[in-house]
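Field log, afternoon session.

UNIT: design team B
ACTIVITY: writing a sequence onto a fixed backbone
BACKBONE:
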């Protein structure tokens, strides 16, 4: 997966967002500490773009985590992946897939749900 996030399916809601950093298409964008969005285009700091704030997406997950269907997931802005650890992380959404421990990979997440 070359992008941080890959759209899987579902109705996607877009909202305008003024970028606080440069982004590439598919990048996960933290929105404060309570939500994430997905960049639909490559753009520069200060530009306004439409970002996806809902839908089902595939995003890389922390290798150490065991993720079960229905788990609350958080985005780690340093590691740039999803985790089940809430401390100092950004709420991402609900897991719609599973991932065993000690396995590199990704998981489906319903954004901000």
């Amino acid at each position: 997966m070359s992008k941080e996030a890959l759209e899987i399916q579902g109705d996607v809601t877009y909202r305008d967002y003024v970028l606080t950093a440069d982004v590439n298409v598919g990048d996960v964008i933290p929105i404060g500490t309570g939500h994430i969005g997905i960049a639909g285009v490559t753009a520069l700091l200060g530009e306004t773009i439409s970002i996806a704030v809902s839908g089902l997406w595939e995003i890389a997950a922390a290798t150490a985590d065991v993720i079960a269907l229905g788990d609350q997931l958080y985005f780690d802005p340093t590691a740039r992946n999803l985790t089940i650890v809430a401390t100092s992380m950004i709420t991402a959404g609900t897991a719609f897939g599973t991932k065993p421990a000690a396995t590199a990979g990704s998981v489906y997440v319903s954004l901000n749900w």
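LOG NOTE: The chain has no helices and ten strands.
NEXT ACTIVITY: expression trials, pending approval
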